[in-house]
Every structure is written in structure tokens, then in C-alpha cells.
Amino acid sequence: MQNKHEHSVIPFFVLVFLLFIPFLVLGVIYPIELLPGLPISALGAFTPALAALILTYKQHHLSGIRQLLGRSFDFKRIKNPYWFLLILLINPAIAVLAYAIMRVTGVSLPNPTPWTLAIVPLFILLFIAALGEEIGWTGYAMEPLLQRWGTLTASLLLGVIWMAIHFIPLIQAHRSLEWIGWWSLGTISYRVIMTWLYVNSGKSLFAAAAFHAVINLSWQLFPVNGSHYDPRIFSLITFMFAIALYVIEWFLLRHHRTFTKFQTRSYQ
User: Fold this and answer.
1) CA–CA dist 140, 64 (Å, integer)
2) Interatomic CA distance for residues 224 and 236, integer angstroms
């Protein structure tokens, strides 16, 4: 029997882009925003999940679809509760640091508004939208990429694809090329962090979707409804954070191996 992860991701990526075309056309016909800075073509966020479900049905029929959708709430894979803190707090920490840097450097920013219960339904909507992407990106495409390329390279490859599919919606939202360039650096960096969390937290699709949702929630909560969001500041912080994760992991693994060798020699 074929392993469920033994599939090519190329047909998946092609299908995602094909399914996304009608939403791009919709954005041209109806240039309206679902949220501030979010064009109607963003409804195409569900195309990765749709593509994954179509290909999964072709390969494994309804049982495969049930298994893939069931991973949406696989939080039991996350054995250590500290991972939940990282998943939920990394993005707010980046936003707070960006706000502080912008204020210190003289950028005129309004004071943050107090959070209300309105963020709960907003987070739920953003989590559903994140699932529309991560069921495809993480649930279907990530494992074959990990098996072939490893964590870092797989995250970079998927990050580039994730970035590319947003180009036209960003243009429809009237973003400048400079804005998109800085945003692209942050997007790839977010995918690197997200993949690192996914791999280290038990390969939980729920973890990836929750992290993705908090990215968008932090953007919408940044003053005012994200209108003061500066992709240059956010992206540089996120980029440095992604590098720090891998440097710390490398240092800890190297230290652990050195300590293990020292123990072995001590007992000989």
C-alpha cells in the first residue's frame, strides 16, 4: 500500500494556483475589502484546502479526507503545554516590539486600544481562514517536502510558494512594490517559524493554523486595524527571530552532543 505521504506536491501547487484564478478575477470585478487591507480575492485562502481535499480523495477516497480534516484539531499531538505559549505569543511579541521600535524612532502612532471580546469572533474567523490554507500547505504539502528537503529548506520552499500566491491580492489592495518586497521577507520568515513549531510540537496541523491565525490577528489589532503596520519593521524582526530559533537549536544540539560524548568518555 502506498504511504499517505508519498505524493508529489507539484500537482498540488499547480491546482492551488488554478483554483485561485476565479478569486483573482473576482477581485478585479469587485474591488472591495473584507477587512481593512484585505481584498475580496483573499477568499481564495481556502483553495489550498480544496486542492488538498481533491487530490486526497483521488488517492485515498473518503477515508483520506476524514483523516486530513480530522487533523484540524489535532492539538493532542502537542504534548508539552509550553508549545501553546510559543504558538500564541510569538506574534504578539513581534507586534509589541515593532510598536516600541516605531515609537522610539519617532513614528507617529496612536495609543493601542484596549482589547474587547470582539477579538474572540475575529480570531475564530481568522482561524477558519487559516485552516483553509494550512490543511493544504501543512497538512498535505509539508510532509513530502520535509521528507525530501528537511525542515529549513522545506519551509523556505513552501514560504516562497505561499508568498507568490499573495502577490496579485496585494496589488489589488494597492500595496507598493517596496511594501510587497518587505512583506515577502516577513512571510517567508513566518513560514520558517511556523514549520519549526510544527515539527517540534508533534507535527500538529492545529498548531500551524493557530500560529497562522495569530499572525493575522496581530496585524488587525495593530493600530488602527493594521493601517500603521510597517512591513519593513515587522519583517526584519520576524527574520531575526527565525534566525535566532535555528541558531539556538543548533547550539543546544551541539552542546547536547558534546555533553553526551563527555559522559561516554567519563564512563569508559
Assistant:
1) 11
2) 21
Residue 223: C-alpha distances to residues 13, 74, 94, 175 (Å): 35, 33, 14, 18
Torsion of the alpha carbons at 89, 180, 168 and 158, rounded to the nearest 10: -50
Cell of 132: 483553509
Q: Would residue 178 count as lying in a domain? A: yes
The per-residue pLDDT for 226 is 87
Q: Rounded to whole angstroms, how far apart are CA atoms 211 and 197?
A: 9
Rg of the Cα trace of the chain? 20
Residue 206 belongs to some domain of the structure: yes
CB 195 within 8 A of CB 211: no
Whole-model pTM: value is: 0.90
- Mean pLDDT in consecutive groups of 10 residues from the start of the chain, 268 residues: 64 97 94 85 94 95 95 94 95 96 93 83 95 97 96 96 94 93 97 96 96 95 90 98 92 66 39
Our count of domains for the chain comes to 1
List the one residue out of 66, 57, 22 whose CA is nearest residue 43.
Answer: 22
Provide the residue range defining the domain that includes 111: 10-267
